[in-house]
Amino acid sequence: MNKLTYIDNNQLDHFILRKILSRYGIPIEVKCADSCKEVLSQMMNDSTEKENMPDIIFLDIYSAEFDAWEFLDKLQLLYPAFAKPVEIYILSALRFQTDLDRLKQYDLVKAFIMKPITKEVLQQLLKQRELPESRFTMIEALN
Known about the structure:
By secondary structure, this protein is of the alpha/beta class. The protein has helices spanning 11-23, 36-46, 68-78, 97-103, 119-130; strands spanning 2-7, 28-33, 56-60, 87-92, 109-114, 137-139. Helices cover 38% and strands 22% of the residues. α3 links the parallel β3 and β4 (87-92).
């Protein structure tokens, strides 16, 4: 089972993700957090323990406390010491080309996901994870 950590200070988004996962039986263990700082601290403590590390991180680009850029910069420094690879997916309700261009500079960022998260978005993400090493992409719900 994959482990997902979802960093977003919006409790409603946490609730929606959990509902979608349970309703459609998508096999992912979810841990939600309000703060990048909290997750970064936990990852530093667990960096050598493979079973405690997430496989996937969903990160709201406009997080509270410190933003996604600061989190990604710090995580990139720690990343080589991790016991296993961690995939980062950036989420936002807004799409700015400057953000997309900047995200492409981080090898650990796999995709930009437009909110809201839907069943189709999660299915698309899981399909993408099965592909051989793919580089940065966009994932969004089809209307």
